[in-house]
Amino acid sequence: MMLKPGPLMSCLLEADPFALAEMMVAFANGDGGSIVVGKDSDGNVSTPPIYVEELEGALHQAEQMCSPVIQTGWEQFESEDGTLFVVRVVRSSELHALSDGRVVIRAGSENRPLSGDEIRLLAASKSTGEFESETVAGAKTTDFDDEVISEYIQKLSSRRHKAVSRSEVDILLEAGAITRNSIPTIAGMLLFGKESHVVLPQSGLVFVRFVGTDPRGSDGKAGYGRREEINGPLARVVENAWNVIHEEMAISAVVEGLEREEKPEYPPFAVREALVNAVCHRDYRLQGRRVEVRMFADRMEVISPGGLPGFITVDNIVDEHFSRNPRLVKGLFQWGYIEELGLGIDRMIESMVQAGHPPPEFKARPHAFTVTLYNNRSRKVMPKWQGNMNERQMRAVEFVHTNGRIANREYQQLCPDVSPETLRLDLSDMVDKGLLLKIGANKGTYYILK
Predict the structure, then answer these.
(1) For FRET with 148, which of 172, 302, 336, 417 sits at 20 to 30 Å CA-CA?
(2) Pick the CATH number of 205-374 from 2.60.40.10, 3.30.565.60, 3.10.450.50, 3.40.1650.10
(3) Do the beta carbons of residue 248 and residue 209 sit within 8 Å?
């Protein structure tokens, strides 16, 4: 069986204390994760096998290399390849560093050192604690919706490709929905509560459909034609909000050959991703505002209360991943609303560009984060085979659409933090795909749309 490292999983062939320490710090500073010891991502198995005493000794050394110390748990598994160990690292409320002073975070399938500014942002985020793990005064498990819990367990079984044999209490405990004393948490009420908006008035979503491009009408009064308040467990909020948006979206028809294809005003994936991100990453400590979806004649704005979490900024939002509410993220991931952790923003941009729209616009303020999707198609719809591009390449295509051409120097100005060799390979890849045409040679080289 091949292992695929990612934001929540890594693998080590040997029980190396230095490698373990780095993985532990990266996961503890992020959303937690699991370290498989005894097998690497290529399928190679440790020879000779790792013994329990060896793993425990390596973990003890690794813990001493972390400041503050990170406590872990581990399990032993017998696989067809032999004995494997899985070390569990939980997300920490503290900021951790290695003994050499580095502060690392899990970024995709790698561990990345943080800069000074990023460390300060992450430290400030850690100091606020995890609001979603706090208990709800007076709440009981009878406040949970049994139908919603049953649906969650069914989705959980489907994602894991096997029936869940544990009790409902154990499943809720694993999800962070209850404490060991069976007291509902904030996360539990948001995921499973019958009337979560009663105990958490800031939960839920407000949808407003404006007639024109401005919140006010021509008479100076509120210019909206429809307003909906959507409450309930987060999965129901996402679904019901999507249904309302879909009702309001314009649908055009395109005939290609003998086939008629409907084109929605906005790509469904981009809309759903913006909705899911808003409800699971918002700051639920802010009690005066709910998630808002504002639909105008030319754009849709999805506004999430609270600034960006941790060390995330508008500049690194595509490449980095950090959750303010990891239990909500995990819950919606198990539900199937999040397909693969850390890739949603990439696919949101890709779906907009493929449909011929401008990329989404991201705006971060101290107490709100806004995603704006524009419905104007400023260029031809991109064929699906051309859609397999990274975010840098999409920016390059946008530049060419606007300016007619792009040179290596201009691409480097667009992506100043990326090496020239990587950017050269990006352009070469787009030429090979038939998207760009290379003109000239050496320093006079530039690229145009083919």
Answers:
(1) 302
(2) 3.30.565.60
(3) yes
